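Technical note accompanying the year-one report. For the benefit of new consortium partners, we illustrate the data format agreed upon in the data management plan: each record pairs a sequence with a structure-token string. No post-processing was applied to the example shown here.
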Amino acid sequence: MAILDNGIWYPDGDINQISKPDRFEFPNTPEAGRYHLYMSLACPFAHRPYLVINYLGLEHTVSVSTVASKRGSDGWVFDDEHPDTVNGTQGLVDLYLKSNPHYSGRVTVPVLWDKHKNVIVGDDSSFMAMALATKWLPLAKNPVELVPAHLAAEISTLNDWLHQQVNRKVYHVGFASEQDAYNIASDELFTALEQLNDRLGQSSYLHGDEITLSDLFLLPTLVRFEAVYALHFKANKRALCSLVHLYEYMLRLVRLPRIRETIDLGYMKLHYYFSHKQINPTGIVPAGPEIIW
């Protein structure tokens, strides 16, 4: 894991070696034009706040840009195609050090940047997505309640479960270095997907017939599954399309223009297959599979 410890860069550092990682003061009051979201079109966690921004029509409130698709020893970097248009830095490490030269903690996406104070104010994708969906809602051009009051507790509970059993679990499968660990993680992941498939046999979306924030937590994993996770991460105990209700649910969501606009499969494939040399040493990006949706 890439970290900074008192301003020193460790591309393969251990976050546990830092006794007190720095925390960010997330803004309590939304303000149009003040904040910028740095994200990666490959990262499913960064995809969450980006989905909320795009779905609710908050682009005028929070500007968005992505880092380059290829990630190496320098961590997340910018390039000519994906530059840092706000601060002109070369990479995310430089952005963190610009915010705090003595920063200690992870160097990751997403990052919420305060353009007035010139500091990072958030890098927790779950918290950020929730705040954008609730506190930022009055500024939205498409003010849909992704967290209705009567479902708020259920949404938070399900989001936590999705994070552990699906969003992160697929990484436990992909980065397993022993057969037993892989087998356990694979079984747990597909058990969770089967439970979601059964749930979606009863309703159009996770909490009924309307899209909620939980759907925007699950979707980033689903849209990466066929192109990346099934092959690159060996998450192939079952084909995603065999989970019929879950697959139809994904198709319903990706047909929505505000959601589809956030998905770039070519960028995703280039990132995963090039950047994870411990899994794919050659860095060769496969031609397939053909994604029909």
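Partners are asked to follow this layout when depositing records. Residues 173 and 182 are 5 Å apart (CA to CA).
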